[in-house]
Amino acid sequence: MRDITSELVELVRITSTDLPKSIQEALDKARAVETEGSAAQAAMVSILENVEMSRRNQTPICQDTGTPLFFVKYGQSWEPGALKTQIRAAIAEATKRSYLRPNAVDSLHGKNTGNNLGDDNFPTIHLQEIPGDELIVDLMLKGGGCENVGRQYSLPDVGLGADRDLEGVRKVVLDAVYQAQGQGCAPGFLGVAIGGDRGSGYLVSKEALLAGLHTENPDPELAALEQRITEEANTLGIGPMGFGGKSTVLGTKIRASHRLPASFFVTISYMCWAYRHRTMTIEGTEVKYA
Ligand code: SF4
After folding, report:
1. What's this model's pTM, rounded to 2 decimal places?
2. What is the pLDDT of residue 182?
3. Which of ligand 1's atoms lies nearest the C-alpha of 145?
4. Whole-number Å distance between alpha carbons of 280 and 290
5. In whole angstroms, what separates CA 24 from the centre of its chain?
6. Could you tell me if the CB of 66 is within 6 A of ligand 1?
7. How many angstroms does the Cα of residue 80 sit away from the middle of ligand 1?
8. Which atom in ligand 1 lies closest to the alpha carbon of residue 65?
9. Candidates 1.20.1070, 3.40.50, 3.30.360, 1.20.120; CATH matching 5-15+61-143+276-289
């Protein structure tokens, strides 16, 4: 298999320093709806200046460059073991070039490895074989502050009056947004998984965040719920960086999985304004970044 380490380093550079256009547009809209001269608007102005400066200087958008999460779909001519080795090499190189802050810390002793390479799960690499010959690598850099405010609920939740239905899902997702206030760096984006088990719930809630902001949910009921949650979250008054205001959540993506009859989990991954996600596609000799 050919060596694509340098292409992967470029994917890390773009992801860390150049926020996708759709996210920047969402942040622009949030700035426009905030009241002139308010702390909320000032926060949005600072965020957007920072986004521009990072792009211009090729420096990380946030000091926390996050956990690198790779979602890899590989065709027949790619070898999963070699892909993993090259991804790890690319992460170490990207750290050396300061596209990433060294973030891999030994959980027991606090020692930083210095190159973002921890055990087999750091960086996190999900591999999936697909037909054909294409390679698709999605990279998400997930900040610690927003990861900390992710939540999982087991329905029914008596305290919140949330039953095992979409109304119950709505209640717990809004509770998660409410509980996150002041943390997680709003305005944010929500990836929600309904069903699965506790482990797959968190994975699917992150995969939901990989769907583009403008991708419509194929299930009309879930599409309506996504829109309703986003609108209602923006009435909570939390606002940019918790300063109050109208922009708390800029998008919600929901996916439903099968579950055991005994369980009904709702899992929420909260993504901060620094929604760093890029895709690299290789087909033949052509390499594309989006
Ligand atoms: S939550 Fe996001 S914006 Fe806030 S410090 Fe972490 S990476 Fe940066």
Report:
1. 0.95
2. 79
3. 1
4. 7
5. 15
6. yes
7. 31
8. 7
9. 3.30.360
Q: What is the pLDDT of residues 160-205, one digit of tens each?
A: 999 999 999 999 999 999 999 879 999 999 999 999 999 999 999 9
Provide the residue count of the chain.
Answer: 290
For residue 89, how far is its CA from the centre of ligand 1 (angstroms)? 25
Reading the block at residue 28, the tokens are 């622009």
Which is the closest atom of ligand 1 to the Cα of 62? 8
Element (H, E) at 9: helix 5-17
Note the pLDDT tens digit of each residue in 243-269.
Answer: 999 999 999 999 999 999 999 999 999
pLDDT tens digits for range 265-276:
999 999 999 999
**Does the Cβ of 144 fall within 6 Å of ligand 1?**
yes
Helix (H/G/I), strand (E/B), else coil: 129: strand
Domain boundaries, the chain: 5-15+61-143+276-289, 145-271
